[in-house]
């Protein structure tokens, strides 16, 4: 007959479930003194031993399974408990077998369920008094089953649990994030954002065309302000005389009447439906970004790299003098080469890219603001779509930003914006400051359009 393990010398006797082995802190590190003054006997039943053995080669739980097997090996060899903690409370550990289980008398327990098998084995454990055994588990099912069958049960404090371990997916994400951080440490980190200077919603102006009578009246005022000049006089060798002046003025006069003033409403609406947009680029990393390219697109509006102005009352009249100096190529501009840290407008090979800037050397810790113009068109309804994309020669992938500023279409009287009597502007256009700044820097930094949309 198999000898039964004596329990009389122990204050409390706990049968551990498998979760206590794998999910709680190591047995020798738990604060047993918080629940008893001891001594304590911890029992490992056959079901728990089998489940632990099955995990010996598990990547996450294998080490804990092997540790328990090493601790309990002396008990298996001798059949007696082994002490794993001396102070402040003595903790002994023992493997205990179970006798024959009469399953028909335990009809509420499932023979194939691990938790139920632990309770059945505790009831039939080869100890001198099985009813002294307490089932220790964080789970409710084994504790409830134990109480139904006259055994006590104990749920340890949640602080006894190990900190949650990441799932395989979480570990994979963590590994990928670590790889990304490693790549970022060898690459620049760029950030890009888009903002409007004008408060939203942006106004898309709709202006009624001027009448035929007004076209004639305004045309006469424009021509009176820019009358045909007298030609002739004495010019040495006639080098400065514009010999085509009369023909050019005839063309100018005709186009004022039939081309420029009839489209005055379109030119005014265009000028007052264009807004400054700022693209903020930052190098937030520790490395220089090399060969940086900033691409800007819009699916329902027009983007301009530089400010523009509309010759609402026609272009300047021709001059009686030929500007030969102006015909001489500007050698200084041709020889101009931007420094490596400047952002320079470039023509893109991608037809979808409306504006492109490039910079050879964008230093770490630097912030640069690119100012461009957003022109609202007939296709712009509800909101304008803007997308910015930045790449660098020494950076994998790209960084993008999108903005959809709200747009409201409004009908505006011509007289609110321009004075057709004095041929002057009444209200500054939204991009006035950008135009003025560009003119102060370089007159060629502003693009001029005529009312019909053609570039001067």
Which secondary-structure class do the elements indicate? alpha/beta
- As for the number of domains, it is 2
Strand content: 15-25%
In which order are the strands of the major sheet placed? 3-4-2-1-5-6
**Approximately how much helix is present in the residues?**
25-40%
Overall geometry comes to rod-shaped
Integer average pLDDT: 90
User: pLDDT below 50 for ≥5 consecutive residues: which ranges?
Assistant: none
Which fold name corresponds to the CATH topology of the largest domain?
A: Immunoglobulin-like
Q: How far is the first residue's CA from the last residue's CA?
A: 113 Å
Instruction: Look at the structure and give the CATH class of the largest domain.
Output: Mainly Beta
What is Rg?
43 Å
Q: What is the CATH superfamily label of the largest domain?
A: Immunoglobulins
Q: How many individual β-strands? A: 21
Count of runs of 4 or more consecutive helical residues:
13
Largest sheet, if any? 6 strands, mixed
In the CATH hierarchy, the architecture of the largest domain is: Sandwich
Summarize the structure.
The chain is an alpha/beta fold.
Overview of the structural elements:
The protein is an alpha/beta fold. The protein folds into two domains: 12-160, 3-Layer(aba) Sandwich (Rossmann fold); 188-450, Immunoglobulins (Immunoglobulin-like, Sandwich), CATH 2.60.40. The protein has 13 helices and 21 strands. The longest helix has 18 residues, at 168-185. The protein is rod-shaped and about 135 Å long.
